Every structure is written in C-alpha cells, then in structure tokens.
C-alpha cells in the first residue's frame, strides 16, 4: 500500500503547482512532437519512394547506354548510343535467368489528334515492356511481335495523353500523329503516377521500338534495355552475366584499357540507395529532435531541484512521522516520471496532429509508425528517470532535523 500512497502524494504535489508542471512538461511535449512529426514525414516520403520503385516492376534489371570516358570527358547514362538491338536480342538469348527483354528508345515529340497537340515522351519498346514494368492496360491490347517485325504504326498511350488529346472520346482505334505519321491507338495504360525523378509516367506514348527507330527518330542505337530476372535472388547473377556478355560483344577487356560503355542498375540497388538516404535523414532529424527531449529533461531536473528546496520542511515532517528515505526518493522520482510521460503523451498527440496538418497543407503523404510512438514514450519516461533521480536522491538524503529547521 505504501507505493500507492507515494504515488498519490506525488500527484497531489504536481496538482498544487499546475502551471509550473505544465511549463516543466513543455520541453518534453515539444521534443516528442518534433520526433513524431519529423519521423512521420520521412516515413511518408520513404513509402512514396518505395511505391515508385515498385512501379518499375518486379526483379527489373536496367541496362543503360553510356557511362564511358571519351576525350577526357565522362558521359553519363544514356549519353551515347552504345547499345544495339542485337545486344538486346543476345541478352534475351544468352543470359540465363532473364525472362523478358524490351529494347528501349526514348524521344520527345509533338503529337496531334482531334485538332489538339501535346509535347510528350515517345518510348520505343518491345511487347514484353508492360510485363516487365507490371503496367496493365485499362482498355485495348498491347502490340505484338508481328508489329515489331513489320514496324507497325500502332501505339498505346498513357492517361495524360487521353486527357489532353481525347478528353471526350474513347481513344481506342483512333489515330494519333507523331511527326505527321499516323499511329493507331491500340490500348490505354492504367494510371502510374509520378516516377522517382518526379516526372509524369502517364505522359507517354509507347510504340514498337522498330517503328520509333525507323519511322520517327531515324536512329540505329538504343538508349537502353529493360530486362526482368526470374527472381530477386537471380538479379545479381543476371547483372553480372549481362555485363560479361556486353563486354565480350563490345570488345572491352582488362588489357584494352577501355571502360564499360554501358551501365547496369538492378532494382535492389536502387532500393538500397534510397533506403540508405532515407535512413540517414531519419537518424539526422531524429537526433536533432532528440536534443529537444534532452533540453526538456534538463528543465525537469531544474524544476525538481527547486521543488526540493521549496519543500524541504515538508520532507522533514514526513521523515519525522516515519517516512523513509526511499519513500521520499520514490515520490520525487514518480513526480519526474509522471511529468515526462504526460509530456510524452501530449507530445505524441501534437506530433501526429502536426504531421496530419503538414500533409493536408502540402499534399504530402505522412506515415505515423507505432514504433516511433512507443520509442518516444519510453524515451520520455527514461528522461524523467534519468533527470529526476538526482533531485530525488538529494531530497532523500536530507537530514530530518535540518529539514525541520529549514525556513
């Protein structure tokens, strides 16, 4: 029963100085709120990035043209046409573990339909492209291998193209012109949203890569090759085998002194890079917010020391009527922990509210994780114990006679 009476005494002491208790807890409230809000915003951004990575497809391995040195100048990915259609066909034929391949040619052109025009991205792809990207059609059908071989004038379009050029019509079967070349619309892609780089993935027209190369851009090289591994475990081996095959085809050896004229990126590599950046930001901002908790803890220690001084005579009376030092220690420690936990609980509510408000005002996704709430509450309780122990110990060690004489 003694512990319950000690808790009641601690709560009564806090209630006697309501304003001071609130101001003391304010540092913890702000610290916890900052932690919850910042981590929620970061988790929301991380979740969006992960969904955008998932929109690339499953077990995707991307091969880009470029990434080589020429004349002392290093070119980036896609900076030069170093990949050919034969490279893509050989990857499909020779590399074990590859279940789908789509040669890719990218361009930006003006497209026209129904008296309307729109500048958009033109992608030349193979029939496997939608399977690699896990990108279903809402209507219509994908072009076939026959249309690849015949450089067919057919296309599928994204939802942004539908909105801009076919606002009131069903686009299936209608004609869309690219550089005054008529292409028949075979299908409409489902909405994909923004890419990792922030571009609109739905603002696209996809045509057979042979049609893009021979009819539209008049080029002979690819920008890249989209491939899909049979499983996530096979990705690394597929990347290595593709690199070996391309070095052999492009005559790149250790003795030639030439660097790779291509770049390979696996989905896991992209995921890990983004996760590492997100984790770094989480630790950084969490650490900054944690400083607020420490400042709040110091505030608790300061106020508790003042409280010990103010209540010295009260402590002496309690000891004189039979209270032990451990009872005094427990009372002041409970006061500090209660202040911290109340501040932590209010801080959690304030942090969630701040994250939700930020989400509404900026149209960003925020994600409040239960782990961050639990850790914040535990940490605030630990702060109360750590910073409340010294004042509580000081109160417990007071000499009863000296305490009774204190004015």
Describe the structure.
The chain is α+β, with helices and mostly antiparallel strands. It has two domains: 2-52 and 272-405, no CATH class; 83-249, no CATH class. The chain is 56% helix and 18% strand. The protein is built from 13 helices and twelve strands. It has helices at residues 2-16, 18-54, 85-94, 129-133, 145-149, 159-165, 209-216, 235-249, 267-310, 312-320, 325-362, 370-396, 400-405; strands at residues 60-65, 69-70, 73-74, 98-113, 116-125, 137-140, 154-157, 175-178, 181-189, 204-208, 224-229, 262-266. The strands form two sheets. Strands 4-5-10-7-9-8 form a six-stranded mixed β-barrel. Strands 2-3 form a two-stranded antiparallel sheet. Strand 2 (69-70) and strand 3 form a beta hairpin. Helix 1 crosses helix 11 (325-362) and helix 11 runs antiparallel to helix 12 (370-396). The longest helix is centred in the last third of the chain and has 44 residues, at 267-310.
Q: How large, in whole angstroms, is the Cα Rg?
A: 33 Å
Our measurement of the CA-to-CA distance between the termini, rounded to an integer number of angstroms, reads: 32 Å
- Stretches where pLDDT falls below 50 for ≥5 residues? 68-79
Structural class: alpha+beta
Secondary-structure element series: HHEEEHEEHEHEHEEEHEHEHHHHH
**Whole-number tally of structural domains:** 2
Shape: elongated
Strand content: 15-25%
The tally of beta strands, per DSSP, is: 12
């Amino acid at each position: 029963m003694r512990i319950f009476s000690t808790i009641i005494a601690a709560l009564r002491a806090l209630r006697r100085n309501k304003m001071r208790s609130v101001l003391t807890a304010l540092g913890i409230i702000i610290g916890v709120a900052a932690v919850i809000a910042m981590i929620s915003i970061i988790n929301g951004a991380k979740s969006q990035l992960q969904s955008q990575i998932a929109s690339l497809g499953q077990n995707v391995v991307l091969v880009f043209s470029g990434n080589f040195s020429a004349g002392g100048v290093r070119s980036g990915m896609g900076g030069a046409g170093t990949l050919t259609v034969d490279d893509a066909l050989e990857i499909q034929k020779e590399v074990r573990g590859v279940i789908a391949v789509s040669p890719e040619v990218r361009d930006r052109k003006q497209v026209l339909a129904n008296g309307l025009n729109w500048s958009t991205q033109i992608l030349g792809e193979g029939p496997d492209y939608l399977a690699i990207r896990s990108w279903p059609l809402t209507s219509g059908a994908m072009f076939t291998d026959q249309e690849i071989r015949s450089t067919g004038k057919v296309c599928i379009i994204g939802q942004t193209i539908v909105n801009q050029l076919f606002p009131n019509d069903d686009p299936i079967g209608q004609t869309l012109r690219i550089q005054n070349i008529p292409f028949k619309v075979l299908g409409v892609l489902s909405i994909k949203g923004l890419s990792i780089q922030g571009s609109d993935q739905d603002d696209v027209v996809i045509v057979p890569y042979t049609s893009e190369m021979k009819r539209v851009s008049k080029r002979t090289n690819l920008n890249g090759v989209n491939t899909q591994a049979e499983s996530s475990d096979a990705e690394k081996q597929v990347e290595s085998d593709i690199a070996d095959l391309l070095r052999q085809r492009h005559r790149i050896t250790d003795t030639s002194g030439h660097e790779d004229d291509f770049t390979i990126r696996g989905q896991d590599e992209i995921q890990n890079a983004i996760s590492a950046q997100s984790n770094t930001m989480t630790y950084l901002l969490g650490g900054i917010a944690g400083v607020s908790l420490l400042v709040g803890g110091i505030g608790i220690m300061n106020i508790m020391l003042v409280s010990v001084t103010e209540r010295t005579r009260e402590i002496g009376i309690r000891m004189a009527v039979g209270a032990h030092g451990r009872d005094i220690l427990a009372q002041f420690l409970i006061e500090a922990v209660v202040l911290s936990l109340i501040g932590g609980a209010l801080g959690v509510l304030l942090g969630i509210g701040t994250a939700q408000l930020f989400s509404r005002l900026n149209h960003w996704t925020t994600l409040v994780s239960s782990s961050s709430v639990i850790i914040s509450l535990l940490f605030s309780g630990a702060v109360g114990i750590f910073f409340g122990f010294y004042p509580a110990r000081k109160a417990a060690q007071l000499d009863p006679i000296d305490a009774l004489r204190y004015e």
